[in-house]
């Protein structure tokens, strides 16, 4: 049992009123990680040297080794612990664990950066409807799942979904904080490159001045279509080792980047998005000079395969190693369930 869970157990023993411990989860109580919101729209083509129309291009392969030196990824876990019976409703109380780290490549091996990692255990609940001071007296971290939204008319299921979304948001903030620390430390070093699992648009928005940074983001999700249909059709027909033209998304959340699609691998009979990733870099002239080179580096990062992870077609091996390190330190589901199993409340 972790020190945080011990505090939670002690708190529940001292404050049992209205507490209903959840010892058996149903399918309705499983908290799914929120997917990227589906969206369709167009994007602005970014002209490259001698390429003025949208197209797909084979990535030139050279003997130059990948230049990525650092990799950042994170994990999260959400689990319903108990619910509170209050006058207004049943309030789910969710345990959330988030963690993120930076791996550094040294002599072809990946090593954790000693001071570029972080994790947090916390309870996630609609704080507006309870007295959170009692939690704080026990040193229990609370995150409000309904900071800006009315909770009074929300259903139990929607409260669970909101808790999962809040855990995901806190994980994103942790990863962004570590990435900012990396930029402060290595951003001016010409031999250091950071590869981020996910979008880097938030990082770009936080920069006081628009400048080139050796930071690359790789997104594996394709629920959002950033390109108009005829362009996207070309992307979905790309062979392995090809990339699309560079474009600038017009959606506000990601307009601070240049982006392009890259097919990491392909096999007959696979879905159209098999092996397909979307790459992001800072919206600067330097990026346009490096598109092919960065794409070639990413193709090199596909070896070895990230098996047995089911996302192996798009999950780059350094990210799999990040997740492996993080999960080896994370509290297991059995440990969390055991912590509250014997409570008599």
Topology:
Blueprint lengths: L2 H12 L4 E3 L17 E2 L2 E3 L10 E3 L11 E16 L4 E17 L2 E17 L7 H5 L4 E3 L11 H31 L7 E4 L3 H5 L9 E5 L4 E2 L3 H8 L5 E3 L2 E3 L8 E6 L12 E6 L3 H16 L16 H13 L3 H9 L4
How would you sum up this structure in a few lines?
The protein is an alpha/beta fold.
Largest sheet: 9 strands, mixed
Distance between the termini: 19 Å
Low-pLDDT residue intervals, each spanning 5 or more residues: none
Count, helices: 8
Principal-axes shape call: elongated
Q: Please identify the structural class as seen in this structure.
A: alpha/beta
Order of helices and strands: HEEEEEEEHEHEHEEHEEEEHHH
Number of strands: 15
Helix % is 25-40%
Oligomer: single chain
Question: Can you give the mean pLDDT?
Answer: 89
Cα-based radius of gyration, to the nearest Å? 22 Å
> What portion of the residues fall into strands of 2 or more residues?
25-35%
Characteristics:
345 residues, alpha/beta, 29% helix, 27% strand
Structural account:
The chain has 345 residues and is α/β, with parallel strands linked by helices. It is built from eight helices and 15 strands. The strands form four sheets. Strands 1, 5, 6, 7, 8, 9, 10, 14 and 15 form a nine-stranded mixed beta sheet that branches. A two-stranded parallel sheet has the order 2-11. Strands 3-13 form a two-stranded antiparallel ribbon. The protein is elongated, with a radius of gyration of 22 Å. The model has no long low-confidence stretch (mean pLDDT 89).
């Amino acid at each position: 049992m972790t020190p945080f869970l011990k505090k939670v157990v002690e708190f529940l023993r001292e404050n049992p009123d209205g507490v209903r411990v959840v010892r058996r989860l149903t399918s309705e109580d499983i908290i799914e990680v929120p997917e990227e919101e589906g969206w369709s729209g167009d994007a602005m083509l970014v002209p490259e040297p001698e390429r003025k129309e949208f197209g797909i291009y084979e990535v030139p392969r050279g003997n130059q080794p990948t230049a990525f030196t650092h990799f950042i990824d994170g994990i999260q876990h959400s689990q319903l612990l108990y619910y509170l019976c209050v006058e207004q409703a049943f309030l789910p109380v969710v345990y959330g664990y988030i963690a993120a780290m930076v791996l550094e490549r040294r002599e072809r091996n990946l090593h954790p950066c000693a001071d570029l990692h972080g994790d947090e255990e916390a309870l996630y609940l609609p704080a507006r409807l309870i007295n959170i001071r009692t939690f704080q007296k026990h040193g229990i971290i609370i995150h409000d799942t309904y900071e800006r939204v009315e909770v009074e008319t929300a259903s139990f299921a929607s409260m669970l979904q909101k808790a999962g979304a809040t855990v995901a948001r806190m994980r994103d903030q942790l990863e962004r904080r570590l990435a900012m620390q990396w930029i402060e430390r290595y951003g001016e070093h010409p031999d250091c490159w950071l590869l981020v699992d996910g979008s880097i648009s938030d990082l770009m928005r936080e920069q006081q001045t628009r400048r080139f940074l050796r930071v690359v983001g790789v997104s594996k999700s394709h629920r959002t279509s950033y390109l108009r249909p005829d362009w996207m059709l070309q992307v979905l027909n790309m062979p392995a080792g090809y990339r699309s033209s560079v474009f600038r998304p017009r959606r506000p959340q990601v307009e601070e980047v240049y982006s392009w699609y890259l097919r990491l691998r392909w096999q007959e009979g696979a879905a159209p998005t098999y092996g397909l990733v979307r790459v992001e870099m800072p919206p600067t002239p330097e990026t346009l000079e490096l598109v092919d080179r960065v794409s070639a580096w990413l193709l090199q990062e596909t070896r070895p395969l990230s098996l047995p992870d089911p996302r192996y077609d798009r999950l780059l091996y350094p990210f799999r190693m990040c997740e492996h390190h993080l999960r080896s330190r994370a509290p297991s589901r059995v440990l969390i369930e055991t912590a509250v199993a014997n409570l008599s409340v």
